[in-house]
Each structure stands twice: as C-alpha cells, then as structure tokens.
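Extended Data, panel c. Modelled sequence:
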Amino acid sequence: MKRIIPVLALLLSVLLTFGSVFLFHACEPMEDGSWMMCHYAQLVVTVFGAVIMAICILRIIIPASLNAARGLSLACIPVSAACIMIPQNIIPLCMMDTMRCHSVMRPAVIVIGIMIIVLSIIDLICNNK
C-alpha cells in the first residue's frame, strides 16, 4: 500500500501534464490566430504538472524511510494547491462561463490537484508510522 500511493500520485500528475494539452485543454485560438488568456493558464498548468511529475518520480525512487521522501510528499501539497489556483485565480480565463476553459479545463485541474493533495497527505500519514 505504501508503494502504490506515490505511483497513483505520479499517474495523476501525468494526467495533469498531458491532459492539460490533449484532453482538457483551454479554448482554441481566436479567428485572427491570437490566443486568449486561458491558453496561457493551460501552459502554466502543464508546467506545474511536469514539476509535480518530477517530484513524484523522485518520491518513488527515494526510499520511504528517508526524511527526503516525506519532504517530497510534503512538497506536492503546495505545488498542487498553486496549480489549482492558476486557472481563474492567478491567470484570468475567458469572460463567458460557458467557454471550454471554464467548463472543462478548470474543473479537471481542480479535481486532479485535490486528488494529488489527498494522496500526498495519505502518503505522509502512512510514512510517519
């Protein structure tokens, strides 16, 4: 059980990273070829997902008995919380609530981010025993 939690967090971070590009991406470019602000929110979410993915990979490599493993699990919490806040709170999304960035991207980022936070907390609790 202790080994599966970091792997699940890694899978979720992979989903966050690649899903933000291919599955729940932001709005398409405008007719003139320029991008709306939500596109930049998507790019930042992708970068944060890659950072979380790197942390999760290190967490899997480092034995759970070391303090560094607990530190990596702990590091996932604020990084994931910041990632959750990117769409709309840090980078504004489109003005219409019916746009793809509001209806698809933002909820997906929130759900995946919360799941990573929960798994990180569970990993911390399991490794403190």
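The first helix runs from residue 4 to 22. This feature is highlighted in the accompanying rendering.
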